[in-house]
């Protein structure tokens, strides 16, 4: 053996070294520079990013009872490219048992309660890799479907809205469609309810289990805010029952009962806004379109005699009349060539202003209203809210049509004094009585009490009160309303132990073809008058029968009594403060 | 790198001796290598043992961690199932608590609408309004229908049974709240390892096969 390496060895060694250098270079190229992004690709293969869905906020009532919540559901979908016949291990036989796609379709159809042929069609659809077999199945059904272990059948977790009380307050809550919220508070407050989804990033090994020591990051989801309403579920239900009964009794097109809180600190809060028929948010299609949104906002109509309250309050405020001012009230009178008459024929009476209000005489109202300028009366109508849209934060604005005096026709200067010739929604009318009952101060009606953060922090929704009438006018108006219930047009509204006041109204309803072809009947009342706690409004649209057949006071009495007892309102201590309706001793003149 | 260092590995002493022998032209001088000393032997065995122990420890840890991961999967699934069961039960409670259901239950128990309550002025002792006897014909109406999609899910069991068999307070709001909270674990519903549940075919093993899709 030579002491130095032979030439052959040297050449061999050089080749090996050269190869080593090449390999080293390649290694450095791949590992160090990684121009093809292999390492990145490997990580991204292992790396899973999963969206952590934010829980949609609940909608609760003023007492914290759940009106809308969320539950875990699954959408069952199929990839028709992967479906087909397959085998499952059968424990009894101890071997693999073949299952045809038709059998799969039948089993699926039984589980999701649909048609087997339809399911088969979806399982074998061509030109698609995604077909939905069933939506919103319960975890129970989902588990059973997964136990079939059919290839190409997957489940996607979704969150379904649940409405535990069904149609109670359905039109207020609104509903959610496949692509998102469609109506009501679900739509209007969608942003607050939705929240921010989070993210979870982790690495998964080939066996599908997370690699415990590898990357793990979590950006937590921010859940949506809960929505606390001013609605009282119990009173809402009671009012819905009561108005449905009344509407059915008169075979009317629709009815509405609205209850508003006047208690201190809760002024203007809507406790109930009940329609004769209400959408069940779980199944909106089952209900007529009219009843899918709150009627108290969507429907506007002439307030009728209820509108006389604006004329009387304005006259008292302007000082052109006192409650006991005397008038000689005929059945019929002619003003500016226009003939105006009362609902029923009667002899000419010597009455007080209070009596005119209690018996709701149009002629007497004109005698009082005409003591003011047209513009003044118009300004008061505007101040109490007519002619302006009504927004209570529900995404639906109540409409009110009131033309300025210069656009009035020949009758409107007269008719607007007794609630005709302009329209308003139920809530326009309720707002008027809210301010008359509460010292003349308008507290804008609202339905959302607070947004509640997931950590429990509350953001209260507040509104700015505004004085419209003087305290004195408000007090006098309550006494006038008491006369209506004591001896006037709504004696059925009396509640034993409580001082009750209110005003009934009937107006002709405009038909689709123009002209009037029906009536809208309403009654709005306040109790107890010594310290008003609630306003209850009852409206029935197009009841069957003749003018004068209808009486809403028993529905009012039921709902008001329920509200008074539910909230432990003590009976009135004072005697009635109603003024005499007629001049002199005798008060029982015929209608 | 040069060629020279490659020639170096042999012990220098040995190489020198070989060079000497070559120059003398004599036969190769064969000599047994000195035996490894006992102390060195012990060291090697020790090192090997240490290596094996370390390897075993790493293996054991790995198996343990992997198994725990499966446990986590299983427990998460169990948690999710319980959450779902709880959701179904609380939905039943909510259904039964809805005003319509309460009214219907009351009617089936023979209850009627209340008559006006009586009131007494405590300061004077006067009866402000007298109570009346409720009329047996005053049954609450049922115009408002029960929620359509929320018929109690019988599969989850009847909430009444659970209430009977559970310790008092288990079905209280606290318990509902605890169970209905979203899982804090990394394998909550909808993530990579969801989809298995107790009762799945284990293919003869004890650990459920994880699935990627839910």
Notes on the structure:
The complex is a heterodimer of chains A (591) and B (214). By secondary structure, chain A is of the alpha+beta class. Helix content of chain A is 31%, strand content 24%. Chain A is built from 18 helices and 27 strands. In chain A, the strands form nine sheets. In chain A, strands 2, 3, 6, 7, 12, 22 and 23 form a seven-stranded mixed β-sheet that branches. Chain A has a five-stranded antiparallel β-sheet with strand order 14-13-27-26-25, with helices on both faces. In chain A, a hairpin with a 5-residue loop joins strand 25 (501-510) and strand 26 (516-527). With 214 residues, chain B is mainly alpha-helical. Chain B has a domain at 37-99 and 156-199. In chain B, strands 1-2 form a two-stranded antiparallel sheet. Chain B starts with a helix and ends in a 34-residue tail after the last helix. Chains A and B meet through helix 1, strand 3, helix 5, strand 7 and helix 9 of A and helix 3 and helix 4 of B.
Which key features would you list for this structure?
heterodimer; A: alpha+beta; Penicillin-binding protein 2a (Domain 2); seven-stranded mixed beta sheet; five-stranded antiparallel beta sheet; elongated; B: 214 residues; mainly alpha; two-stranded antiparallel ribbon; disordered C terminus
List the helices and strands and how they pair.
The complex is a heterodimer of chains A (591) and B (214).
Chain A lengths: L6 H27 L4 H9 E6 L6 E2 L5 E13 L7 E5 L4 E5 L1 H12 L3 H8 L7 E7 L1 H10 L4 E10 L7 H4 L2 E2 L2 E2 L2 H5 L1 H5 L3 E6 L12 E4 L6 E4 L3 H17 L4 E8 L7 E7 L19 H4 L1 E2 L6 H11 L7 E4 L2 E4 L2 E4 L7 E4 H7 L2 H8 L4 H10 L28 H4 L8 E2 H12 L3 E2 L5 E5 L5 E3 L5 E2 L3 H16 L14 E10 L5 E12 L6 E8 L11 H14 L25
Parallel strand pairs in A: 2-12
Antiparallel strand pairs in A: 1-10, 2-3, 3-6, 3-7, 4-5, 8-9, 10-11, 12-22, 13-14, 13-27, 15-20, 16-19, 17-18, 21-24, 22-23, 25-26, 26-27
Chain B lengths: L3 H4 L4 H13 L13 H60 L1 H10 L10 E2 L6 E3 L29 H7 L7 H8 L34
Antiparallel strand pairs in B: 1-2
């Amino acid at each position: 053996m030579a002491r130095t390496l032979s030439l052959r060895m040297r050449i061999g060694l050089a080749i090996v070294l050269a190869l080593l250098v090449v390999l080293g270079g390649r290694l450095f190229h791949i590992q160090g520079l990684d121009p093809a992004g292999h390492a990145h690709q490997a990580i991204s293969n292992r790396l899973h990013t999963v969206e952590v869905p934010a829980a949609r906020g609940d909608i609760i009532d003023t007492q914290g009872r759940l009106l809308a919540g969320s539950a875990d559901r699954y959408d069952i979908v199929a990839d028709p490219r992967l479906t087909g016949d397959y085998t499952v291990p059968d424990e009894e036989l101890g071997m693999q048992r073949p299952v045809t796609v038709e059998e799969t379709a039948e089993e699926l159809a039984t589980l999701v309660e649909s048609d087997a042929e339809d399911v088969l069609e979806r399982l074998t659809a061509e030109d698609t890799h995604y077909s939905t077999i069933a939506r919103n199945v319960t975890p129970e059904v989902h588990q059973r479907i997964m136990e079939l272990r059919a290839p190409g059948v997957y489940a996607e977790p979704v969150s379904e809205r649940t409405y535990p009380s069904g149609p109670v307050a359905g039109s207020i809550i609104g509903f959610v469609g496949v692509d998102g919220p469609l109506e009501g508070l679900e739509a209007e407050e969608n942003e607050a309810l939705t929240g921010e989804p989070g993210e979870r990033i982790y690495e998964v090994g080939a066996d599908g289990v997370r690699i415990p020591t590898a990357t793990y990051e979590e950006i937590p989801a921010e859940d949506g805010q809960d929505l606390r309403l001013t609605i009282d579920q119990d009173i809402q239900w009671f009012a819905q029952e009561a108005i449905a009964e009344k509407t059915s009794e008169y075979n009317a097109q629709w009815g509405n009962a609205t209850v508003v809180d006047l208690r201190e600190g809760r002024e203007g809060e809507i406790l109930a806004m009940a329609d004769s028929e209400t959408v069940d948010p779980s199944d909106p299609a089952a209900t007529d379109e009219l009843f899918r949104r709150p009627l108290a906002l969507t429907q506007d109509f002439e307030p009728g005699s209820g509108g006389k309250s604006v004329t009387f309050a304005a006259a008292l405020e302007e000082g052109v009349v006192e409650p006991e001012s005397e008038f000689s009230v005929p059945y019929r009178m002619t003003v500016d060539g226009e003939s105006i008459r009362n609902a029923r024929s009667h002899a000419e009476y010597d009455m007080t202003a209070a009596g005119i209000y209690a018996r709701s005489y149009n002629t007497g109202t004109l005698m009082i209203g005409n003591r003011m300028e047209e513009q003044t009366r118009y300004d008061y109508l505007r101040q109490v809210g007519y002619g302006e849209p009504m927004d209570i934060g529900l995404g639906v604005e109540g409409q009110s049509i009131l033309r300025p005096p210069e656009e009035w026709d020949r009758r409107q200067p007269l008719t607007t004094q007794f609630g005709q010739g302009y329209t308003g929604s139920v809530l326009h009318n309720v707002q008027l009585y809210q301010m008359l009952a509460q010292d003349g101060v308008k507290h804008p009606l609202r339905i959302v009490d607070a947004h509640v953060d997931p950590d429990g922090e509350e953001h209260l929704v507040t509104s700015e009160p505004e004085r419209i009438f003087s305290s004195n006018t408000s007090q006098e108006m309550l006494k006038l309303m008491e006369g209506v219930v004591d001896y006037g047009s709504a004696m059925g509204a009396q509640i034993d132990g409580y001082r009750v006041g209110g005003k009934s109204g009937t107006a002709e309803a405009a038909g689709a073809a123009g002209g009037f072809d029906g009536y809208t009947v309403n009654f709005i009342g306040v109790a107890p008058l010594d310290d008003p706690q609630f306003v209850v409004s009852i409206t029935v649209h197009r009841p069957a029968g003749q003018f004068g057949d209808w009486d809403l006071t028993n529905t009012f009495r039921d709902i008001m009594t329920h509200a008074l007892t539910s909230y432990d309102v003590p009976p009135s201590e004072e005697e009635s403060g109603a003024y005499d309706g007629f001049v002199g001793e005798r008060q029982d003149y015929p209608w | 790198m040069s060629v020279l260092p490659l020639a170096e590995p042999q012990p220098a002493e040995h190489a020198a001796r070989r060079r000497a022998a070559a120059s003398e032209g004599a036969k190769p001088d064969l000599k047994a290598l000195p035996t490894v000393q006992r102390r060195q032997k012990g060291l090697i065995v020790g090192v090997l043992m240490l290596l094996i122990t370390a390897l075993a420890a790493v293996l054991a840890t790995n198996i343990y961690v992997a198994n725990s991961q499966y446990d986590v999967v299983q427990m998460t699934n169990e948690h999710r199932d319980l959450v779902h069961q709880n959701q179904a039960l609380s939905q039943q409670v909510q259904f039964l608590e809805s005003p319509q259901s309460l009214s219907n239950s009351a009617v089936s128990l023979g209850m009627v609408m209340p008559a006006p309550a009586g009131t007494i002025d405590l300061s004077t002792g006067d009866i402000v309004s007298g109570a009346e006897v409720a009329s047996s014909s005053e049954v609450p109406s049922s115009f408002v229908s029960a929620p359509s999609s929320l018929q109690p899910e019988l599969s989850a069991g009847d909430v009444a049974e659970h209430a009977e068999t559970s310790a008092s307070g288990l079905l209280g709001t606290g318990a509902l709240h605890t169970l209905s909270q979203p899982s804090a674990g990394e394998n909550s519903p909808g993530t990579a390892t969801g989809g298995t549940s107790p009762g799945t075919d284990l293919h003869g093993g004890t650990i459920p096969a994880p699935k990627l899709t839910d």
